[in-house]
Design brief:
The protein has 183 residues and is mainly beta. The protein is built from no helices and 13 strands. The chain folds into 2 domains: 90 residues, no CATH class; 72 residues, no CATH class.
């Protein structure tokens, strides 16, 4: 649902998954709800929206069934009331393979995909396609990363071979995704 660090750090707390006594429901948070026990640590989200692109993690609750659900940003589940967990991460896109932002002018149409790190997903000029998104990493893009390890690759919109299925590709977080006028 969200990208969060897998290690503790400054201004981060443990996000835990809890399970009820019947092992039929899970709840996520920093402390257990009544009749739930710790099952595992999910990650270490930020305690503040201190970095660009971070969004609040939300947990939904259905009072008629007693079910909890970690929810995508802006998700509305019938019967669930969403509330903030008070921690932050970078949003993911679930089973969506495309969340497109399009811009056209002068015979050129450019589509960017938020799921794949905001890359230029398609580029057409007078009906001819110039950009192919056959696999993450082959698109036109700009990227940055935090850290100095050579294992960190700022040059890909994610990882995986997209046509192999949505589970084979993992996009990169997006800090900002918008058109302003004709740019």
């Amino acid at each position: 649902m969200y990208y969060v660090p897998d290690q503790p750090g400054t201004n981060r707390v443990s996000l835990n998954r809890y399970v009820n006594a019947g092992l039929t429901d899970h709840a996520d948070g920093m402390s257990p709800v009544a009749n739930y026990t710790l099952e595992e640590v999910l990650g270490y989200p930020w305690t503040q929206a201190s970095l660009p692109g971070l969004t609040s993690l939300s947990e939904g609750f259905d009072s008629s069934t007693g079910d909890y659900a970690l929810m995508f940003p802006s998700e509305n589940l019938p019967g669930y009331s969403a509330s903030s967990l008070g921690v932050y991460g970078y949003p993911r896109f679930g089973n969506s393979s495309e969340v497109l932002l399009s811009l056209s002018g002068g015979g050129v149409t450019v589509e960017s995909n938020a799921v794949a790190g905001g890359v230029t997903w398609r580029w057409y000029w007078n009906g001819v396609q110039f950009e192919n998104h056959f696999g993450y990493g082959g698109e036109i893009q700009a990227a940055f990363y935090f850290g100095t390890s050579s294992a960190l690759n700022p040059n890909e919109a994610g990882d995986g071979y997209f046509p192999a299925g949505i589970s084979a590709g993992n996009g990169s977080p997006v800090v900002r995704f918008e058109n302003q006028g004709n740019t």
